[in-house]
From TrEMBL:
<dbReference type="Pfam" id="PF00149">
    <property type="entry name" value="Metallophos"/>
</dbReference>
<dbReference type="GO" id="GO:0016787">
    <property type="term" value="F:hydrolase activity"/>
</dbReference>
<dbReference type="InterPro" id="IPR004843">
    <property type="entry name" value="Calcineurin-like_PHP"/>
</dbReference>
<dbReference type="InterPro" id="IPR026336">
    <property type="entry name" value="PdeM-like"/>
</dbReference>
<dbReference type="InterPro" id="IPR024173">
    <property type="entry name" value="Pesterase_MJ0037-like"/>
</dbReference>
<dbReference type="InterPro" id="IPR029052">
    <property type="entry name" value="Metallo-depent_PP-like"/>
</dbReference>
<protein>
    <recommendedName>
        <fullName>Calcineurin-like phosphoesterase domain-containing protein</fullName>
    </recommendedName>
</protein>
<feature type="domain" description="Calcineurin-like phosphoesterase">
    <location>
        <begin position="30"/>
        <end position="116"/>
    </location>
</feature>
Length: 218
């Protein structure tokens, strides 16, 4: 695991991780958004020439985090599976093998828009599935970045990226965390996901991910 970047948010210490996740020490919780397991397999079934091995790479990163951090719970902020085509036998077999390596870890999925199309994970994975929001401490854990009347929202869905401008026409699009006044966004954890550009303003903080490190912007 790469070095975390501690921040304070809603009175809590959170660790931003270069692996595109958040660790919450007080809850011994690992938060990830938008894994989209089986997305590449679903595209290949449609005849699209997309890369193989994304599920195994996602699982390897997860295993590394779980080995390095004292986790009692793993919370998915939506979009665990990409769609109906994600139920391909190789994908489900890889997930079953991964779950078997962590039999005592509590896992929760907050349903996202892709979960509604894909259906819940197989019951054999022993993942509790709940609607949004999941209220925990000062946070409303959600998939959609909609405001909550009483809690600070941690959400996914957007797949935020930030554009860095260099000299001339040099441009970089880097996955990022966007920490706002009432709503904060996690980057997409999945290895085969797109990104939506977000902007920085006077009341938000942007942290980009590059070279296995977290870098504050501005």
């Amino acid at each position: 695991m790469s070095a975390p970047y501690p921040v304070r948010l809603a009175g809590e210490e959170l660790w931003l991780l270069p692996e595109k996740a958040i660790y919450w020490p007080a809850q011994h919780a690992l938060l990830i958004a938008d894994v989209h397991f089986g997305k590449a397999a679903a595209y290949r079934r449609l005849g699209q020439p997309v890369p193989r091995g994304t599920t195994s790479r996602n699982i390897a990163v997860l295993d590394g985090l779980l080995a390095a951090l004292p986790c009692r719970q793993l919370i998915f902020l939506g979009d665990f599976l990409h769609g109906p085509g994600s139920h391909a036998p190789p994908t489900l077999k890889a997930l079953a093998d991964w779950r078997a390596r962590h039999p005592d870890l509590s896992m929760t999925l907050i349903r996202g828009n892709h979960d509604q199309r894909a259906g819940d994970p197989p019951a054999s994975l022993n993942i509790r599935v709940v609607p949004e929001p999941l209220l925990l401490g000062p946070f409303a854990l959600q998939h959609e970045p909609a405001s909550h009347p009483e809690r600070h929202v941690l959400a996914g869905h957007v797949h935020p990226v930030y554009r860095l401008n260099g000299r001339g026409r040099q441009r970089l699009r880097l996955a990022c965390f966007r920490l706002g006044e009432r709503i904060s966004l996690l980057p997409a954890f999945g290895a085969f996901t797109g990104g939506y550009p977000v902007e920085r303003d006077d009341i938000c903080r942007i942290f980009v991910i590059g070279d296995n490190e977290i870098w504050p912007v501005g």
